[in-house]
Amino acid sequence: xxxxxxxxxxxxxxxLGVGNGISxxxxxxxxxxxxxxxxxxxxxxxxxxxxxxxxxxxxxxxIHVATTVALFLLAASLFTTWSFFTNSIDRHELELVAAENExxxxxxxxxxxxxxxxxxxxxxxxxxTRQLAIVAGLDxxxxxxxxxxxxxxxxxxxxxxxxxxxxxxxDRAANLSDALRAVGWNLDERERVISSTPSIAPVKGxxxxxxxxxxxxxxxGSAAHWAIDIAAAPGQSVxxxxxxxxxxxxxxxxxxxxxxxxxxxxxxxxxGHLAKITVKAGDRVSQRDPIGIVxxxxxxxxxxxxxxxxxxxxxxxxRAYILDGTRAGS
Length: 330
Ligand SMILES: [Zn+2]
Hints:
Elements: H1 4-16, H2 30-34, E1 40-45, E2 54-59, H3 60-135, H4 162-195, E3 206-209, E4 212-215, E5 222-225, E6 228-231, E7 237-239, E8 244-251, E9 257-264, E10 267-274, E11 276-277, E12 284-285, E13 290-293, E14 304-311, E15 314-316
Antiparallel strand pairs: 1-2, 3-6, 4-5, 6-14, 7-13, 8-9, 8-12, 9-10, 10-14, 11-13, 14-15
Helix pairs in contact: 3-4
Bound molecules: zinc ion.
Zinc ion binds next to loops.
């Protein structure tokens, strides 16, 4: 061992104010020499107010440790700061996503409840349509199935397949629309048949001659009479017994002044012995429209209306076609 390094270190101390610690003017002891492999630095604090100064002797190793710790603390604080901001951004995004999710959930809930209300309403329409179909004489109305659509039993759950639900509603609505059209058409048709079917008395009066074979009022012999005769006051109005079109309005042999009305569906009515005809061929008439005045023209023995109903050209008993309270005769 030599003391050369000590003197060098001492010189450092002299020049720089820092030393290796072997600086008290005494030779370093063995233990201190053993540690001379490490460099020492002395930090001197000189307070302005006092003459005395303080010094700390620190090893390189201590400086390294302190520097490492300081760097570590700096890095840690930087990381903490960075992660704080990063986390707060993440948190903000998370809140946005959560809010958005809640909004979507709400939209989904209201969508499901709307679909549910529509399905319920549609089911009611289907019920009513089924009843109307029966009234309209349609064989059957079978609503489009709503099978395969789940979820409505547990509102709020995401079991409903929106596309399938809407598609199903569309199918059912289309089916319902077709059925209602058929019902409407059938009801219209039925109404046409009803309003085209004679169902009232053509005039108020007394039935003087019935339908079938009878004694001829003029010749006294047996004769067929495929009509009814209703005695009525002269001047009384004769009305069409159903909707139809006037096909003949003129003097017709023994019937005198006569009006023929075609009602469609093969049904025609004939009115005879009129004093006056108030319609002309081609006129469209509704049930109860006046067509003439009671008279005694043609082969007649007194004021009365001769009334016939024919279906497909064949006479039928007109009394079967007088359904209102106005009983003509007996
Ligand atoms: Zn007659």
